[in-house]
User: Fold this.
Amino acid sequence: MKSFRLLPMTLAIGAALALPAQAQSLQELYEAARGHDAAYQAARAQYEANLHKADQAKAALLPTVNFTAGASTSSLRTEQGSGTSTRDFDNRNVGINASQPLYRPNNLASYQQGTRQAELAEAQLLAAEQDLIVRVSQAYFDVLASQDSLTFVQAQKTAVAEQLASARRNFEVGTATITDTREAQARYDLVIAQEIAAENDLRVKKLALDQLVGKPDARPHPLTPAATLPGLLPEDVNTWVQQGQEQHPAIRQARIALEIADLETDKASAGHKPTLDLNASHTINRNIGGTAFFPTDSKTYNTTVGVQFNLPLFAGFATQNRLRETLALEEKARADLENAQRSVAQGTRSAYFGVVSGLGQVKALEAAEASSQSALDANKLGYQVGVRINIDVLNSQSQLYQTKRDLAKARYDVLVGGLRLRQANGTLKSEDLQGVNALLAPAPAPAPAK
Assistant:
């Protein structure tokens, strides 16, 4: 009976496993990668660690309180004349000590550095998020490009096989030479090799995407064939560069690093300044059996409140040399900021013109695809009437399918290039993936149950 009871569940599980895998949008796979990608998880953990480290600097401005307790036993032996006496006594003590900094420039600078460290951690995490968006998008469209390449190669194989069969028939009836057959056979063998390479490339690209998003069989939505690629807004490259100077995480990190270096100089100069602390303590000391001087039990209470002033006079020139060191490091941070600004400007311009060039290539390849199709149709007709030879048709077929592959890849490159442009000027957000998702074909609705 147990086997019959388990049968419906077994059939349900088997049916679920037999269903085709559901395709995922780019936004869905990005969200999956956020919870799986090891590099991003490491960046998030580092971000949280930096936040806690920044909070540690606040402790230098807050009071410190310590509780102390102790116990000891003493044995006193006294020899006087011909007599000897021995007496044991115990000591018990508890106390509380508190200290509050009143004037410590070094601690104040450390606290200000801590707040800058929190801002630095936020900029570092933002850079990691932008990098993850681009990596997922690149892997996503790499799979689509490999799928298209395999599809076009298989379509070319079918066309070449038809041309090979036609060449064989024409040779058998004596209207064509053996050369046409051999040329078609050679082209067919070449396409078979290309198909094997395309299948392996698709397999590798899928493995890379699966590893990135943590799904065993990720299936990207294809790009809508009639999708119109978005243009660049704004169309002025200088506007993109200006946005990068204001928002790019690398520039923010370099700017914060300069502020931290400036505060480090303040800390070094604080070595010449005095410090003032408020100290308070309360101690209870109990003597059981007396002391070395008083033979009876006693208990004492000691409460102390006061301020402590300290003025550095000479530290072996350590403070002066530390100040020179921090000034040099501050100059380095300033140079790093300048380098970051130049690198972001250069990267933004390169990414911008890359997208502009990609859009132009898409238009040119669309025209080339139409021309290649017309050339193939003309060569097929010419071959049928005897004014073209078989190799002309084969070359036209190769040109058409190569143009189709190049056009598909160019379209994907433009979409990824737009995201890379936003990464280059530091404005890339996860919301930008929604615009790309709008260009993808929706997943087909599941078939109704019969």
